[in-house]
Amino acid sequence: MKKNTVIVSVSPHIMSEETVSHIMWTVSLSLFPAFVMAVYFFGPRALFVTALCIISSILSEYFVQKAMKKKITISDGSAFLTGLLLGLNLPASLWSLNPFTIHVPIIGSFVAIVITKQLFGGLGYNIFNPALIGRVFLMASWPRAMTIWNEPTAAFVAFDAKTTATPLGILKEEGIGRLIEVFGDKVNLYTQLLIGHRSGSIGETSIIALLIGAAFLLYKRYITWHIPASFLGTVAVLAWIFGGKGTCLFTGDPLLHLLSGGLILGAFFMATDYVTCPSVKTGQILFGIGCGALTMLIRLKGGYPEGVMFAILLMNCFTPLIDRTIRSKVFGAIKVKTK
Amino acid sequence: MSYWQLLKNGIFGENPVFRLALSLCPAVAVTNSVKNGFLMGIAVLFVQTMANVTTSLLRKFIHPKVRIPSYMFIIATWVTVTDLVMAAYARDVYAQMGLYIKLIVAFAIILSRSELFASKNKVVPSFFDGLGMGTGFLLALVTIGFFRELLGRGSLWGIPIVPTKPLLIMILPAGGFFAVGILMGFFNWIDMKFFGDKGASGGGGH
Description:
Chain A is an all-alpha fold and about 350 residues long. Chain A has 15 helices and no strands. Chain A has helices at about 20-30, 30-40, 45-65, 80-90, 105-115, 130-140, 165-175, 175-185, 185-195, 205-220, 225-240, 255-260, 265-270, 280-300, 310-325. In chain A, helix 2 (about 30-40) packs antiparallel against helix 10 (about 205-220) and helix 5 (about 105-115) packs across helix 6 (about 130-140). The longest helix of chain A is centred in the N-terminal third of the chain and has 24 residues, at about 45-65. Chain A is globular. The model of chain A has no long low-confidence stretch (mean pLDDT about 85). Chain B is built from eight helices and two strands. In chain B, helix 3 crosses helix 4 (about 65-90). The longest helix of chain B has 30 residues, at about 125-150. The interface of A and B includes residues 137, 140, 141 and 143 of A.
C-alpha cells in the first residue's frame, strides 16, 4: 500500500509541541509550589477547597459542553486551570460545616465555567477572566463567608483554625503601626509576607513560591515581562507617592504593597491570561499600568482592602479597545494616503 | 392582524424586554422585588395603552416633522396622570418608586410603539397593541422580579419563603443583568425548541 506520494501542504511546516493543552498544564504545574505552601500553612482545608473547585469546574465544563452539543474538551486543562486559580483565590475557611459554606466554591466554579466562559463561546472567546468573575460573583453573594480569613498554622492539624484580618485589612482599618505591631518588627513583617505566613486567600500568600512558578513561566516564555513588570511597577510607584500617612507625598511603603494581597498571583498568573489581555507589547504595558493604577486606587481610596481582582477585570473590559487602537506594525503593507 | 394576535404579539412574539430588548433599564432597576416589578408594569401598561390611543386619535393632525416632540408631549401627559394618581392613592409605594414612575417618559418601548404602530393604525388596533405591549412588559418584569426576589431575598411579595438569603447578588444591580440575560436566553431556547427557528408568532417582524 505504500506509495511514493509527494505531500503538498500549506505552511507552517514546522510545528512545536506547544499546544493549548500543553500550556494549560504547564501553567497549572507552575502554580504547584504556591499550592504546596498553602496546604502547609492552612492545612487540609486549603487542599479540600482547591480540589472542590477543580472537580466542579471540570464537571461544569463537561455538562455544559454536553448540553450545548459541543466537543467535550475537559482534557485540555483549561477547566482544570480555571478551577485551580479560583481555588487559590478563595479563603480556606470556606471548607466549613457551621456556617455551611461548602456550596460556595461549587457555585463559583459553575459561574466561572458556564456563564463567563462557555456562554460567551468557550475557550478563547471569553471577555473576562473566568476565575476572577467566579470570585467576584462569590464576593457579591456571600460577602461574609468570603472574608473570613484563617490564621496560618504550620501544624498540619488545625481544623478549628483561628480567624484574623489580612495584612491589607489591618492596614486599611488600623494603619501601618498596628501591622508592624502584629508582626513584631518591620524586618519580620517583610520576611513573613515573603514566605507567606499570613492570612489571606489560599494561593496568594506565599510570594516566594509564586515567584518560583512565575520565573518558570518566564523562562519557558509562556508569559512575557510586559504585563507583570508594568503592573508591579505602577503599584510600587503609586504606593511610594500616595501610600504615606495623611497627605505626605513620597513617604509610602512600596515593598509592603507589593508583598501583600493578591498582587503577585494576579500580576503573573491572572493578568497575563492570553485570552483577556492585549496581544501587542505596547498594549500589554498600557494594560499593566491600568491594572496597577486601579489596584492602588481601590487599595488606598476604595471600600475594599484589596483591589487586584477588580483592577484586572476592569482592564479586561479595555482589552478590545487597546487591541484596536494599538496595532502591531504590518510589514509590507502600503500606506494609503487619505486627504 | 386580529386583536387577539396583536395582544399575543406584544406578550410573546415581540415581548418588549425579551424580544425587542427595549426598556432594559427599568427591567434591571426596579425588579429587585416582585411587588416593585408588578407596580412598574401596571404603570407602564396604563401609559402605553393610553399613549397609543391618543397618538392614534391625533395621527392625522400631527405634522410628520414635529411628530417625535408631539409623541413626547402625549406620553408626558399620561405619565403625569399616573404620577399624580399614585402620589395621591399609593403613598408608600410612591415614596419608593416615584423617581422611576417619572422616568417612564423616557422609556424606549412607549415612544417606539407610538412611532411604529399607533401613528399608522386606527384607534382600536392601537389600543390592543398598547395593551399587548404593556402586558408583555408587565409579565417580563414580574418574571424577572420573581427570580431575583426569590434568590436574592428568599421571599416573594415581601413574604419570606426561605429563612436565608440564598444568592445575594441577585438583588444587586449586577444580578439584574444576570437575570435578564439568562431569562432571555431561556425564552430563545424555548422558541427554538418548540416553534422552530421562526419563534412563537413569526419573530420580530418590522
